[in-house]
Amino acid sequence: xxxxxxxxxxxxxxxxxxxxxxxxxxxxxxxxxxxxxxxxxxxxxxxxxxxxxxxxxxxxxxxxxxxxxxxxxxxxxxxxxxxxxxxxxxxxxxxxxxxxxxxxxxxxxxxxxxxxxxxxxxxxxxxxxxxxxxxxxxxxxxxxxxxxxxxxxxxxxxxxxxxxxxxxxxxxxxxxxxxxxxxxxxxxxxxxxxxxxxxxxxxxxxxxxxxxxxxxxxxxxxxxxxxxxxxxxxxxxxxxxxxx
Length: 244
Fold this sequence. Notes:
The chain has 244 residues and is α+β, with helices and mostly antiparallel strands. The protein has helices at residues 16-29, 32-41, 44-57, 59-64, 133-144, and strands at residues 67-70, 76-84, 94-98, 101-106, 114-120, 124-126, 156-165, 172-181, 184-197, 200-210, 220-221, 226-242. It is 23% helix and 40% strand. Helix 1 (16-29) runs antiparallel to helix 2 and helix 1 (16-29) crosses helix 3 (44-57).
């Protein structure tokens, strides 16, 4: 039993995942030297008690270790643009869907998790429930045109994680990532509401950005009397499938 602190590799059976998850939890929650001391010095029976305690309160983490890919058919990423200006009452809010994207999440490492997302900027589609198809097409062409997103010269939208902490709460994970839009990269923090559905993970949330953060000037007409506000909201409902 003297090697019970070396990665828990000698403990097969129903608690092996919980043991590994507890080690991750200790490493993230405690100052590293303290965590190492606890892992190395705690007797196995007591460590199993700690394992069951952490696994009970953080059960989702123990169950989700692994690699995943984004299920684009079941996932949704939408952008909400809001009207503004002196005559904003004559304008419209706009709802835009990102329709072509892919991504992966690696939740298998004890020291750091990773998440990456790649999207086609030209796949942004205006899905306003009001107005005619021609009006939606006009808004879409303006949005993707050279004065706004300029999808021809900046064809991709990207997200790459810098840090990924799943331990803040039972199902609330914290993600810090570089977001690239219109050729400009900005660091952003996300709060992810994660739920497990069978072997799938569902991640939901929303995030506010500013167009000018990505060197995009808000569209306006009538000398600014009717315009799109600088702040826009991204809502996401991402379904992750395990990679076998």
